[in-house]
Design goal:
The protein is built from 11 helices and no strands. With 237 residues, the chain is an all-alpha fold. The radius of gyration is 22 Å and the shape is globular. The longest helix is centred in the middle third of the chain and has 44 residues. 33% of the residues are buried.
Length: 237
């Protein structure tokens, strides 16, 4: 009789090789790219930010359930690269300052957490092999060694795009809890300013609206100054 053992071993070896290929760093990174492209395409086609800003159902315009639902939608939209300022303005316009800020912050932390998890699981192993440039190595070292304070600074001075900060942190060796806590705390001032501006948009000459817009402008200028100084410091090093 024929011995089936060699055929069995060959099949097991083929399965093992296929498994290694499917779960290799670059295969997982390709999956991450596909997921992000699909999310961005969905955002462009469906334009969910317009729904949140102007097409929110009237029966969901108030109450804790509406705030929770908006926070969930906010988080999903940030993963799909919808700009957070638009979502923050919508939160203020729909729910007012207090409830709008709660919904926006919950959505911010949710979206950042999902993006961080996707980047860490699907992209870290592949992208860390590309950390060869001086600036990239410096950013990785800063986030890996001083993750909490670095992420807190990035959120307080919004010069780095939200999604870029999420995936840079995921590729680094920064821990998950410090990332979430720093994101939540650091996002409060800027998010609050946009939410107040959205809630007071019908009264553009009110002190609250003017103060919110002034804060947004000042933090933007501060972020530009910090980025310029950091760039020259890295160049000198």
């Amino acid at each position: 009789m024929l011995d089936p053992v060699p055929a069995t071993r060959s099949a097991v070896g083929l399965c093992a090789r296929c498994t290694r290929v499917l779960f290799s760093p670059w295969s997982r990174f390709s999956l991450l790219v596909a997921v992000l492209l699909a999310a961005a395409t969905t955002m462009l086609l469906l334009k969910p930010h317009r729904l949140l800003a102007s097409g929110w159902p009237a029966q969901l315009s108030g109450g804790a359930a509406a705030v929770l639902l908006f926070g969930l939608a906010y988080g999903i939209c940030t993963v799909a690269f919808v700009p957070r300022p638009l979502l923050n303005l919508a939160a203020g316009a729909l729910f007012g300052t207090q409830a709008g800020l709660a919904a926006a912050l919950a959505g911010t932390v949710l979206g950042a957490g999902v993006s961080f998890a996707l980047g860490r699981v699907l992209g870290q192993d592949a992208l860390r092999t590309l950390l060869r440039g001086r600036w990239m190595r410096a950013a990785d070292g800063q986030l890996s060694r001083h993750g909490f304070r670095s992420m807190l600074a990035l959120r307080l001075f919004p010069g780095v795009p939200f999604a870029a900060a999420n995936y840079c942190a995921a590729v680094s060796r920064m821990g998950y809890p410090p990332f979430l806590v720093a994101t939540g705390l650091g996002s409060i001032p800027n998010t609050a300013a946009y939410v107040v501006a959205g809630s007071e948009a019908s009264s553009p000459t009110s002190p609250a609206f003017l103060a919110a817009m002034g804060f947004i402008v000042l933090t933007g200028l501060g972020a530009a100054v910090v980025a310029w100084r950091r760039r020259h410091r890295l160049g000198a090093e």
